[in-house]
Amino acid sequence: MAVWHTCTYPKVNQSLPVGVRQQEIEEKLIEEETARRVEELVAKRVEEELEKRKDEIEREVLRRVEEAKRIMERQLLEELERQRQAELAAQKAREVTRTPERVG
């Protein structure tokens, strides 16, 4: 059984001689094929660039997250040290008020 493929041919001026019409048809088909191939290549290139940048973006996000973690950890340690110093100062103040001064 024969399978018929439908193909759309570009519109050409029917008043032209057959050889000129044939050449015009071929030129238009070549243009269409070229446009299709260019479109495919552009799509492929865009996909490749997005994939490449995806990895770069992920690395940059991870770098920023790690940097933020280090900053937060440093700030937390500094705050804990300030609290510890304040607690020590408060403890010393309590000891001074509890111990009566000895007069000699």
UniProtKB/TrEMBL annotation:
Entry-linked Pfam families: ARGLU (PF15346)
Highest taxon above the source species: Eukaryota
Molecular function GO labels: cadherin binding
Coiled coil location: 40-83
GO cellular component terms attached to this protein's record: mitochondrion; nucleoplasm
Keyword annotations from UniProtKB, A to Z: Coiled coil
Annotated family: Belongs to the ARGLU1 family.
PANTHER family linked to this entry: ARGININE AND GLUTAMATE-RICH PROTEIN 1 (PTHR31711)
Protein name in UniProt: Uncharacterized protein
